[in-house]
TrEMBL record:
SUPFAM superfamilies: Cystatin/monellin. InterPro entries: Chemerin (IPR029562), Cystatin_sf (IPR046350). Keywords: Chemotaxis, Differentiation, Disulfide bond, Inflammatory response, Secreted, Signal. It comes from Amphiprion ocellaris (Clown anemonefish). The keyword GTP-binding does not apply. The keyword Signal applies. This is Retinoic acid receptor responder protein 2. Its main location: secreted. It is found in: Secreted. One of its GO terms (biological process) is chemotaxis.
Amino acid sequence: MFFPDGSGRSVHFPITVPFSGRNMAALLLWLLSAGALFFASDANEAYKRLPEAYKKGVDLALEKLSSHAGIQHHFLFFRSLTQSDIEPGFDVTYIYHHFYLKATKCQKGTVDSSACQFRNDRPLIDCAVCYKTFRGEIEQEPKPYVHCVHKPALTEDMKTSRVDHCNTLGYSSGSPTLLASTGNK
């Protein structure tokens, strides 16, 4: 056998572990906390990127959703599927927005949702809203349309009804159809 010091006895080299058990636990806790903050801020990031006019429609849908007695959790905007708008002039805009809301781990009525994390054990809420704005504010006439349903329950008839209703909103003012406008997906 080869012994590094040539004496025939074994030489022990100290092995230093950069983290002891307590330090490793602290590091893991810190990483989990940082990850939770990342995901929580990520939950609000999609909403923050929306134009103001679209945020107002999301807020309207969230308000309507939270007014239902059967809803137990706080929901947040998850992502847009379709956005379109028509600006016929005179500071008027007709908006159509199809998007998902997702349940969070926070209870219904949470005021500060910055720490709310998305739940992955609940179905998405599929929402379509259309409304008229004047100078950036939602008009009460024609009445804003909000239709939200759990995604698995959404039928083709419901999708068709949404489109028909929103197209009627645009036609009633003499403007072209909302869904024929060039929006982004």
